Structure formats: structure tokens, C-alpha cells
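ingest -> validate -> predict -> emit
validate: passed (alphabet ok, no gaps, 124 aa)
predict: started
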Amino acid sequence: MAKLQSLSINDSEVTDYVVGGGVSDGWTYRKWNSGIIDLYYNKSFDLVIDTEVGSFWQGTYTFTLPFSLPVILATNATQNDDCCWVGQVAVSSDDQVTVRLFRTSKFVGGATVFINLYIVGKYK
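emit:
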């Protein structure tokens, strides 16, 4: 099999391109030739929001990535309902990120939250 030496579109060299991808444990991912990987995850889960932080209340949830990544470059999360809002996405380890969600009142009964996560890292 011949190895791709260069790739161009409209006479412009393409410097990066997708070399693989798939779905693993609910995560959709793409691996790029440069060593970058991007991962997407959508999840609905119940979250207890009962830790007081200043004048707000917080709940946390840790997500396990399908791969260990030696470097995580960026994280982002959005939440799709009026229950609470995303305060922080933090790297917990090379295969976990923790999302902190906030609201203005305590919610001990558990709120159903739908979240979208986007993670960018290096796989090589």
C-alpha cells in the first residue's frame, strides 16, 4: 500500500487531516495526523446540587474519557436546560474531567442534567 506523502486541495497543501475515529463508551472522537484528538460526549444524568459555594450551590460530576491522554489542551461543556449552568470543566487525571455545575438554590432531590462535552488533547 502506498503511503500518502502530501495532500492538497485547490493547490493548497493540507497540513492536518483525520486519520481515524469512532465511538467508544459514548464518546465520539476523531484522531488527527498531527497527534490531536477531539472528543464529543452528550449525556443526561441526575446530579445532586447541595454544596454551598459563596451565594451559589454546586454539584460536580466526573466523566471518564475512553483513552488516557498525555496532554489535554482544551475542555468545554454546555448544559441544555434551565436547572443550572456550567461553572468549570477541570482535568482530574489523564483520563478524567470533572464538571462543576452551579445554581442559585440548593437542589438535593437531584436534577436531571443534559450536558455536551468537548475535549481536545494529544494522543501521541
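The domain at 16-122 is CATH 2.60.40.3940 (Immunoglobulin-like).
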